[in-house]
Amino acid sequence: MIRFKILSFFIPLMTLAPILFAQKNLQVKVLKSANENKVDISIGGRPFTSFLYPDSLEKPVLYPLRAASGTVVTRSFPLESRAGDPTDHPHHLGVWFNFESVNGLDFWNNSYAIPADKKKLYGWIRTDRILETKSGDTGVLTYHANWTNEQKDIILEETTRYEFSGDGDQRIIDRFTTLKANKDAAFNDAKDGMLGIRLAHELQIPDAEDAKLLDKDRLATGNYVTSAGKTGNDAWSSRAVWCKVFGKMGADSVSISIIDHPKNINYPTFWHARGYGLFAANPLGEKIFTNGKSEKNLHLKKGESVTFRYRIVINNGRQTISAAQLNELAGSFAKK
Questions:
Q1: What's the 3-state SS for 323-334?
Q2: What CA–CA distances, in Å, run from 97 to 38, 62, 69, 119?
């Protein structure tokens, strides 16, 4: 994708129209580790994120996410420790995709914190194959995973393609996930799903707890805004084509935006966007988001499949990305 910066020149007694210069995509490198279950993604020679799929995690994740400046925009816990980071919800890790209720199993809330005698109630997503890695103007990572119970019986087969790109102040992740039913699979309407990001503390909506932080440079300054005009905590349970969280991180204004796709089920999605740092798009949580007025269940028969498509956009600079720019990005994504 090509974006533009505007350079203006002052000439007495006249005004020139803006002159536009293209800002080209930087080269993306996608490198699979030889001895770890990890794929590293760098953009313009700088680390961007890693795809992690070790057996110790209950699901594969992208972790951490960085802005073009190098600033980490996701929470460190539970893989690392950073002063001031909250330690709630250990299943909130980087960027992930799963759901609270599939054939009665909770994939969303599974983590190391679940007692052993309760693990049978939860589901795992186990990545078994990296299908493709490609570097270039757009980096590509494709993998195969199985959604299973504790005994490793396969309920769903997942094939996900990531496309990574970026320029001097923007990073984009396009995710295309197809779930194929290995047996009849019921996604029963539930609050916790589906594409999730756990935000760095600075991008949380401020609350009284921030006054306790010793590092005043890391105070929460976040806010949400949606394409439908909802802001702050009112973004939660609302529907919109896109939702943006933004705030100050150091000297920069930083934003993360998630864009829905018109081919997704129940478009435009409901936003499970919480002030404490959970940022998620969930098209299958309609019952709780509408206070029981309607609900959305998804049932796949054996052999049937469904595809989910999302775009994540990370920006940093003097000001955050505008609604007009996000609408443009949503329009281009809708064509993919």
A1: HHHHHHHHHHHH
A2: 17, 10, 26, 19
For 308-328, write each residue's pLDDT tens digit.
999 999 999 988 899 999 999
User: pLDDT tens digits for 202-241?
Assistant: 999 998 776 666 566 688 999 999 999 999 999 999 999 9
**Which residue has tokens 């057996």?**
55
The strands making up 223-226's β-sheet, listed across from edge to edge, are: 124-134, 139-148, 154-166, 170-181, 305-317, 252-259, 242-249, 223-226
Amino acid letter, residue 89: H
Q: Are 241 and 333 in contact (CB under 8 A)?
A: no
Q: Which residues have CB under 8 Å from 285's CB, separation 6+?
A: 189, 190, 191, 192, 193, 270, 272, 296
Tokens 């930083």 sit at which residue? 254
